[in-house]
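User: Sequence for ABC transporter below. Tokens please.
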Amino acid sequence: MATTLGDVPVAINIQGLYAAYQRQPVLEDINLQFPAGKWTAIVGPNGAGKSTLFHVLTGSMKELRGSVQAFDEPIATHRKAGHIAYMAQREAIEWDFPVSVWETVMGGRYGHMRNDPLWRRLLPSRWYHPRHGEAVREALLAVDMLSLAERPIGALSGGQKKRVLLARTLAQQANILLLDEPLAGVDPPSERLILDVLAREREAGRTVIMVTHDMPGARRHVDHVVLINRFIRGVGSPDEMLSDAKLAELAVSSIEQAASDVRAAEASSFMAARG
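Assistant: Structure tokens for ABC transporter:
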């Protein structure tokens, strides 16, 4: 029987997750379910483990322990099938490299190209299967960048670059979209467009999971909110989780967590000195 959250199927189910960098805990005892076909915002202070959670979900970081499933199967199964697309906060793109907007977005199709015959993959891009070009065209149209498809990526504004990265994510045609601060550093028109695009993706039945610091935008658009600061601090509706009282609790937890980390570091140094 499929796992559900109320009467909604669960897209991603995380149980007992722990993660650390160089033995320093970043996420502890994470038990969390993301509803399918809904838009979830993940909210927390800097250093709370939000990006780390995405690294675990995308497979770029191995959890210390715990389990992660997507639609009641190991999440790796869905990653391999191309069902999960990720837009990182800072993409490892050389923006001065002489490639066009079209070519950059086509990079989102490379995972799908593994299913094409080898001979086609070895040909120039104009000979790629037509479905890849159509996916890129639809993605650029969605973010209002089709008219700039041939423009070098180095000539784009900050907001336009974010749109291109979103288009590359959309071109993957995945069921689950993971977006790490897609609104950071964008101009108001690009912010409105990105929010509208994500709303359409949700309406199309996709699961949207977004890390954000944009509280007004989250209150207006998302269905579900997760508060995190190393531990899960709250899960619920935007009205409840993004209330002034809840956000104040989250801020206090950040201060308390920082103080706890300092005490732990001092205790560790003391013991090391004695040893």
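The longest helix spans residues 244-274.
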